[in-house]
Design brief:
By secondary structure, the protein is α/β, with parallel strands linked by helices. The chain folds into two domains: about 200 residues, Rossmann fold, CATH 3.40.50; about 80 residues, 3-Layer(aba) Sandwich (Rossmann fold), CATH 3.40.50. About 35% of the residues lie in helices and about 20% in strands. α7 links the parallel β9 and β10. The longest helix is centred in the N-terminal third of the chain and has 26 residues.
Length: about 325
């Protein structure tokens, strides 16, 4: 979905405030339903640790890059991790191991294709069923991409990812705002928080985000380019939670942006979309570039002429993150 303007604008007055006020009763009902499901559901324990990387808002915060980073760090520490995804946007319900050579994003979603680059990745609409399949495959730890509000699977560590620039929005619950649940209740179930910032030099406003007094680890992270942007004029397009973040990062890294194009999150690109993008590129004598997440949703032929700009999650204190992961594994292996 495309984020409505009233989630972010007018400082509490005007048409945005009116829209939020009118939708607030639905937000209250939504939050009640989430809380009731969490309270009434007995989570399944599949016998291996589950590290959940979730968020409290609708839209992109950087969960998938953070999940990929955790998978890579766990592998480097000698563990056998695997990723678990709902496979949002795909048609397959699973459990199924993602195979980038055999599966397309329209079948299993875009996130599993990215996660599979870091470690074996599975999709399953039924989280416990997917976790059991992973446990049976020989993995000894699961990194679940999204699912903080899904209570069906026992979590040994819940990590909340928040966009440090966007924060929690106006503080209202979906559809009146971007929150999936109240911040206080969501943080109460968390074991750590990752604040994603535009770069290593931008310091999070911990107090403004309500994180200054938390008694759990709070990490500062950012997305860093894994390669420089291509030379020459670029037409950049993205269908992610917050496309402007991609455009800003591309420009900050030295990319020569001639034009940008926004699409809804998880957008399935049609021949008409691609023809329009080709026309834009031709008009500017430019090359097309997009995110890795968008690139995996393109058809094979389009991938040969459209560049993907890779980014990776980096942490200001990676040693502390490794310490958290070791503590989680030690506690789970000793039955605590």
């Amino acid at each position: 979905m495309r984020e409505p303007a009233f989630w972010r604008t007018d400082g509490g007055r005007g048409s945005g405030a009116l829209a939020r006020a009118l939708l607030s009763p639905l937000g209250t009902l939504y939050a009640w339903a989430v809380a009731r499901r969490i309270r009434k559901t007995a989570p399944a324990n599949v016998g291996i640790p589950v590290i959940c990387v979730g968020n409290l808002t609708v839209g992109g915060t950087g969960k998938t890059p953070v999940s990929c980073a955790l998978l890579s760090r766990l592998k480097a520490m000698g563990y056998r991790p695997a990723a678990l995804s709902r496979g949002y946007g795909g048609t397959v319900s699973g459990p199924l191991r993602a195979d980038p050579e055999a599966h397309a994003a329209r079948e299993i979603g875009d996130e599993p294709l990215l996660l599979a680059r870091a470690a074996p990745a599975w999709i399953s609409r039924d989280r416990p069923a997917g976790a059991r399949a992973i446990a049976g495959s020989g993995a000894n730890v699961i990194v679940m991409d999204d699912g903080h509000q899904n209570p069906t699977l026992k979590k040994h560590c819940s990590i909340i990812v928040v966009d440090g620039a966007a924060g929690w929005g106006p503080g209202t619950i979906f559809p009146a705002g971007p929150l999936r649940e109240p911040v206080k209740s969501g943080l109460a179930r968390a074991d750590a928080v990752v604040v994603m910032m535009p770069g290593r030099d931008t310091v999070p406003d911990y107090r403004g985000l309500g994180l200054a007094e938390l008694e759990i680890p709070v990490f500062h992270a950012w997305l860093e380019p894994a390669a420089p942007p291509p030379d020459g004029p670029l037409v950049a397009f993205a269908g992610i939670g917050r496309p402007q973040k991609f455009f800003d990062a591309l420009a900050a890294a030295g990319g020569q942006l001639a034009e940008i194009a926004n699409f809804p999150d998880h957008h399935s690109y049609t021949a008409k979309d691609l023809a329009r993008l080709d026309d834009l590129a031709a008009a500017h004598n430019a090359s097309l570039i997009t995110t890795e997440k968008d690139w995996v949703r393109l058809d094979v032929q389009s991938r040969t002429r459209i560049a993907a700009w890779p980014v990776e999650a980096r942490f200001a204190n990676p040693a502390a993150l490794d310490g958290l992961l070791r503590d989680v594994m030690d506690a789970a292996n000793h039955g605590r």
